[in-house]
Backbone:
């Protein structure tokens, strides 16, 4: 439990330091004591999160021990994905600028290098207008909207949110952080390549193979990023 909270705090600070999140965005972990619960910081900037800021939620995103602490309006993203995806143990939500153009155009985000091979599983696009049926402030602030986002994500590792940002999921905190980070890198590189010409993307077979290879190497990035926030 203490280890999960330490990793969650580290993930918050890493995502901020690496430019995946800024004052906004959040990362959660499924509660190692109870798979029907998850842990998420109170509503605050990720770079400033400490262990005492972590709140426990049930999968309907009702806070169980918040006390006076305020919850993120978009916590439903996390609970709904944990409900829909038993294989997911960590979720990152961010507004990473590089991915926004891919949510706003018909250009599909694709794996342009092996580090983002996990994008080969597809990158579905969440259109909140379809889910809500009326104008919203773009935020996933209700359980039905969270469930609609989880349905859009399906079995993919990443989903884009039109006019808003993205979610990245993983079987562990390091894996979700890795995917969130390299989704942003891939978006930047794909946009660069499209300005130069017509990019060649990883084939589905290459993406599957590279996803397996890189999954075994996630800890290298995690150790580096943890070292950087400790300096
Ligand atoms: Mn958001």
Residues:
């Amino acid at each position: 439990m203490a280890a999960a909270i330490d990793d969650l705090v580290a993930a918050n600070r890493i995502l901020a330091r690496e430019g995946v999140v800024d004052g906004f965005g959040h990362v959660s972990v499924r509660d190692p004591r109870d798979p029907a619960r998850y842990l998420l910081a109170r509503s605050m900037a990720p770079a400033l999160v400490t262990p005492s800021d972590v709140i426990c939620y049930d999968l309907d995103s009702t806070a169980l021990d918040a006390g006076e602490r305020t919850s993120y309006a978009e916590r439903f993203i996390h609970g709904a994905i944990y409900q829909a995806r038993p294989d997911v143990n960590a979720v990152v939500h961010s507004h990473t600028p590089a991915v926004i153009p891919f949510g706003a155009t018909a250009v599909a985000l694709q794996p342009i290098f092996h580090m983002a091979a996990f994008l080969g599983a597809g990158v579905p696009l969440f259109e909140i207008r379809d889910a809500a049926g009326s104008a919203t402030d773009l935020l996933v602030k209700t359980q039905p909207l969270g469930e609609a986002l989880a349905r859009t994500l399906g079995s993919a590792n990443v989903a884009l949110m039109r006019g808003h940002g993205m979610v990245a999921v993983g079987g562990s905190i390091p894996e979700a952080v890795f995917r969130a980070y390299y989704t942003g890198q891939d978006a930047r590189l794909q946009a660069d390549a499209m300005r130069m010409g017509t990019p060649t993307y990883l084939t589905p077979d290459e993406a599957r193979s590279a996803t397996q290879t890189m999954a075994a190497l996630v800890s290298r990035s995690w150790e580096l990023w943890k070292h950087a926030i400790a300096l």
Q: What stands out?
A: The beta strands are 26-30, 37-41, 54-58, 90-94, 125-126, 158-161, 165-170. Residues 74, 93, 95, 139, 164-165 surround manganese (II) ion (CB under 6 Å).
